[in-house]
Amino acid sequence: MDKIEVTNKKEYLKKSKIIGIGSTAICYLSKDGIVNKFYYDMPGKDDHFQKKFNKLYQYGNETFITPQKLLVDENNNLLGYTYPYVEGKTLLFTSPFVKLEEFLDHYEEFLDDCTKFSDSGYVPSDLHGGNIIYKDGKCKIIDLDRGTFYSDLDYCYRMTAKKFATSYLNKIFKAKLNENIHFYNFYLQDDYNNTDWTDIDSVANFFDFVYQCSRKDNPSIHDVRVKHLAYKQINEYYRY
């Protein structure tokens, strides 16, 4: 994995514009279509991050946009990294929202790329709607610098797929379903936990189950707040 030595950050970022400000870094877009992500602090003094990025670099694909080059100072301390700019909007701001049929059409392609990426043994921590870019029926995942390596590759595959699909659910419900499942009634929890997120039919069945629960004439969900939210959101966005 190549490195870019940045001795003068101001000069290096000349004619670049800020496209994102996060809790740990700022992203700048250069005029040649490359994103430079600079951390506020230098997390790579012990070269842990550099080793991580070197490994992830080998497993990038059409869906998982991994770091391409390391940004280092004159002492080889990590300042950040680069990745190609991805056009589109994040799932948080996509409007009109992705229809389920469109989502499932892309999901099979996602699973193929997820299989390849998961061979790295890595599960991204920040796989959420803010880091998923959507355009023309396809999603691309950015900001893969935070995560954990595991020896169980099948676990990595299933957990990454679950995080991705949950991001779609979070858009509909506007809440973190995997963390606040109690808000949606225990009736949803078992089905959510038992869904095989690596199987398209299983995923489709869960979404269909949620839609049926949201219907006005279905007494399964008794919590008025949940029923109102589910019906309002899903009835608007969820259509085959």
Question: Can you give a write-up of this model?
Answer:
The chain has about 240 residues and is of the alpha+beta class. It has two domains: about 5-85, Phosphorylase Kinase, domain 1; about 90-235, no CATH class. Helices cover about 40% and strands about 20% of the residues. The chain contains seven helices and eleven strands. The strands form three sheets. The chain has a six-stranded mixed β-sheet, covered by helices on one side. It has a three-stranded antiparallel β-sheet with strand order 7-9-10, covered by helices on one side. Strands 8-11 form a two-stranded antiparallel ribbon. The longest helix is centred in the last third of the chain and has 21 residues, at about 155-175. It is globular and about 60 Å long. It starts with a strand and ends with a helix. The relative contact order is 0.11.
List how many beta strands DSSP finds: 11
Structural class: alpha+beta
The level of helicity is 25-40%
Mean pLDDT: 81
Rg computed from alpha carbons, rounded to a whole number of angstroms: 20 Å
Strand order in the largest sheet:
1-5-6-4-3-2
Span between termini: 43 Å
Main pleated-sheet profile? 6 strands, mixed
Runs with pLDDT <50, length 5+?
175-183
The total number of structural domains is 2
Q: Give the overall silhouette.
A: globular
What proportion of the residues form beta strands (DSSP E)? 15-25%
Q: Total number of helical segments?
A: 7
List the secondary-structure elements in sequence, H or E: EHEEEHEEEHEEEEHHHH
